[in-house]
Design goal:
Layout (H helix, E strand, L loop, with lengths): L14 H41 L6 H8 L3 H40 L10 E3 L8 H4 L20 H13 L10 H13 L7 E5 L7 H7 L4 E6 L2 H14 L4 E4 L12 E7 L7 H14 E11 L6 H7 L1 H5 L5 H4 L4 H7 L7 E6 L16 E7 L1
Parallel strand pairs: 1-4, 2-3, 2-5, 3-4, 5-6
Antiparallel strand pairs: 6-8, 7-8
């Protein structure tokens, strides 16, 4: 595994802060690699047999699993430790961020004005009047204090700084040296399925800190690449981060349900594990907006985390809904993404879902021993 890159917009942890982050990373790896698999064994050896003895059948769905599994002491132990490790994760990265925040804000300002190679420039466009949707404001997603959208001070970048460090710890480094795995995965898919596709204008929706966005800007250097999100602090950070890496991207604060871009103005519209952070009504509106934005022959790709195949896998995946403030996850379990895309205006013949199996260690998977990505693909 490649080491996480310490770029110009990350704080420098001191000895104790680094030790704390290392401990949290090791704890989460232990929980995922050693403790979590035991929950599956407990279900198979005692929870499912007890349910069958009482009802004459095995649990029919994840909700029936939830009713019995949450009463098991082993599951309760793992769940409590998983929740606490998530809280510790944010605590471990918030301390160095707060200690160096004034310097990071100053650094972001300087980077925003940096000239890039070949005279190219990225940009940042914020909208103070934008109403952040309730599925972002109702709860702090992933338990990140303040979520992705809260400004704690003028020109704040803290949410982005914390998120960049946090997701590296969350996935045990599996997201790559720049937290770039999701972008690399979707890029590999398009290179396999559409090897001759050369987009001139690309839109990444729900881009957050732009970690996946930069993958596309580097892969298609002649393309004009845009990233949108509802959170101002993550976008400030995304812009400064992209400038630090010398990659021109145009970031703007917009709701993907209704953007201000012209119809038919993009060749490629993408997202990376974003749809499950929205809502049932927003999902259709986002897909409809993707359809509006694409030129004829344009391509839409959404990378998502499937919620498992068996009832116990679905239950374990949806721990996040009940314990980690990802409230829409449990509804995404049974949603047919292709059917939703058809509601958004795409045709059956030009829409498909695929599965992609990444190379990951069980200690990086959190809720399952068998992980795969789901990709929704559609052509305009």
């Amino acid at each position: 595994m490649q080491k996480f890159i310490q770029h110009d917009m990350l704080p420098r942890p001191d000895h104790d802060e680094q030790a704390r982050q290392d401990f949290v990373s090791s704890l989460r790896g232990h929980l995922s690699g050693r403790v979590m698999p035991g929950a599956y064994r407990v279900y198979q050896s005692r929870v499912e047999p007890a349910f069958k003895a009482q009802h004459g059948r095995i649990p029919a769905d994840q909700e029936e699993v939830r009713q019995v599994m949450t009463k098991d002491s082993y599951y309760q132990f793992w769940s409590a430790m998983q929740r606490r490790s998530q809280e510790m994760l944010w605590e471990a990265v918030i301390d160095p961020t707060e200690r160096q925040l004034p310097q990071l804000i100053g650094r972001a300002g300087k980077l925003s004005n940096r000239k890039l190679a070949k005279g190219r420039r990225g940009s940042l466009r914020l909208d103070p009047a934008l109403q952040v949707p309730r599925y972002h404001t109702a709860a702090d997603i992933h338990l990140q204090p303040g979520g992705y959208h809260t400004d704690f001070t003028a020109d704040d970048v803290a949410a982005g700084v914390v998120y960049d460090q946090g997701i590296n710890l969350y996935m045990g480094g599996a997201l790559g040296p720049e937290n770039n795995l999701t972008g690399d995965t979707l890029l590999a898919y398009i290179q396999e399925k559409h090897p001759d596709f050369k987009p001139r204008r690309i839109l990444d929706i729900g881009c957050a800190i732009g970690n996946a966005t930069l993958v596309w800007a580097r892969a298609f250097p002649q393309a004009e690449v845009h990233g949108i999100d509802v959170g101002a602090p993550v976008l400030r950070y995304a812009h400064a981060r992209a400038q630090a890496f010398g990659v021109p991207v145009h970031f703007s604060q917009q709701n993907a349900e209704h953007t201000d871009f012209e119809a038919g103005s993009f060749d490629l519209v993408i997202s990376h594990i974003v749809l499950h952070e929205t809502s049932k009504s927003a999902l259709v509106r986002i897909l409809r907006e993707c359809h509006r934005l694409l030129r004829p022959g344009g391509l839409m790709l959404h990378l998502e985390i499937p919620r498992g195949k068996t009832v116990i896998e679905k239950f374990m995946h949806n721990w996040e809904s009940y314990n980690n403030n990802e409230t829409f996850c449990r509804y995404m379990t049974d949603i047919d993404l292709k059917a939703e895309a058809l509601k958004g205006g795409f045709t059956d013949a030009n829409t498909r879902t695929d599965e992609f199996i990444p190379h990951m260690d069980v200690a990086q998977m959190n809720y399952t021993e068998h992980f795969f990505w789901k990709i929704l693909a559609a052509t305009r």
